[in-house]
Amino acid sequence: MIVPLSTTLLAASVLTASPTALRRAVQQLDQAAFEEAQVRDDTATRAFSDTAIKTSGGKCLSVDQLSGDFRANLTPVQVTACNSTDGQKWDIITSGKHNNQKRAMLVVSTLTQACLNFDPRRAAGNQVNLFSCGGRADGGGEQTDSQIFDFAGGAGPLALALKNDAGSCLAVKGNVLDQASCSEGDATQSFTFG
User: pTM to 2 decimals?
Assistant: First the structure.
């Protein structure tokens, strides 16, 4: 069977193309609502500041603040090529206003100051996002287990095990961060800070 060169090249480009970034949900943030909802905790203890979170495949967790709502809540976490932009910088908070648990961490976007969040009530594939730390959309919450992850210290590799869904870990699925049953040695569940 003879296949035209153009068909072969098209198929190769589709198979090797990088995953595309998610669509932007808003054109701009409501600045007053954003500033109320996403407040930096300057009293927090940070194990890491402005650090990348790398996957086992060498990509980085990344956010686009306009892919969530007008406050930068419900922002999906994407997996993209590492590029040192602000959307790929994270703080790992081990104690503070929104984390009062030992051997635990919050993962906070330094771009938006929103926390990595797991909400099992949302539709599958849309359960992992960024949300106001403390769990209230307006930023008024204190602590919520949906944003607390086990943390024994160190840069990893480590799994991001969920406090509010025992036996579940965050995992790379395509070009987004999602959840799956924890499985030791699963490369999609292995992350490194730095």
Answer: 0.85
